[in-house]
Amino acid sequence: MKKIRRYRINLREIRINLECNQDCPFCNTDEKAENVILDEKSIRKKIKTWSGQGIRYLSITGREPTLYPGIIDLVKWAGECGYRKISLQTNALLFSDKNFGRRLKEAGLNDIFISFHSCREKNYNRITRSRTFRRAVSGIKNILTLKIETTINIVVNSLNYKELPDLADFISRQFKGTGHVTFSFVAPAGKAGKNRWIIPRISLIIPYLTRAIEKTTANGINVRIPSRCGFPVCFLPAYSGLFDDLTTIHPWNKTKMQGKIKTLKCRLCRFNDRCSGFWKDYVRLYGFK
């Protein structure tokens, strides 16, 4: 096997609110999520502290951080603290206002991670439990005109896995300029812990996911499979070079096994020393078979 080189991600992620203008049944941000800080003074203090520790990549998230009243000033503050990469995780709805995106870019925002889970309006609205598909599409297109580095994140779930190949084509056709597409798996945590119907068997997903990966890369867009919210490498060994588990060293690597599990057979796997295994709650639901 060709050796996969790893690079270190000098990143910290902060969750600044618990409000959202959508209601996805798999949202995993709640009061118990990591780095939830809800008052402005503490948020700014934490951002300053991390910068003093040499962190230069800040990801601002929450349920929907664009709803935070001081989001533009907060992005500007992060730049003043010395962060070189300032990223925002968003559903892009507020970016349907072109001026909002322009102001964020002027404040220093230079990276955006966008949740977009379906290319079919009816299904998108069903997944997000809202009527916001057209606003999301408009917002993403506005973001791309700003020339901000853009990743589109697809949370693969029971309602969308069969349309993944079509979604890959839609992104390439409608969202020209997208740099990366991330295929995440719905984590059995947060709301998904109660809405178990939203969690599909991985074995059902793989044929559709494989075609979507092939289409995305053929269209010139980079693909990533994240660490904590991705898939076990053993389901897609031919695409091992796309997995964060194998290609990056994240700040959470020391605790990446928290909430996850492996079988004894995993010890025989060539990826075992880097793979983070899979969610214990998924195994309780479907087993290892």
So what's the overall shape?
A: globular
Quick one: biggest sheet? 7 strands, parallel
> Number of helical segments?
9
Order of helices and strands: EEHEHEHEHHEHEHEHEEEH
The name of the CATH architecture is Alpha-Beta Barrel
CATH-defined superfamily? Aldolase class I
Mean pLDDT across all amino acids: 92
Residue ranges: pLDDT <50 for 5 or more in a row?
none
Strand arrangement, major sheet: 2-3-4-5-6-7-8
Oligomeric category: single chain
Helical percent range? 25-40%
Fold-level CATH name: TIM Barrel
* Radius of gyration, taken over Cα atoms and rounded to an integer in Å: 18 Å
CATH class: Alpha Beta
Number of domains: 1
Question: How much beta, percentage-wise?
Answer: 15-25%
Q: How widely separated are the two ends?
A: 26 Å
From the helix content, strand content and strand pairing, which structural class follows? alpha/beta
Got a strand count? 11
Fold and architecture overview:
By secondary structure, this protein is α/β, with parallel strands linked by helices. It has a single domain, classed as Aldolase class I (TIM Barrel, Alpha-Beta Barrel). It contains 9 helices and 11 strands. α3 links the parallel β4 and β5. The model has no long low-confidence stretch (mean pLDDT 92).
Quick take:
The protein is of the alpha/beta class. Helices cover 32% and strands 16% of the residues.
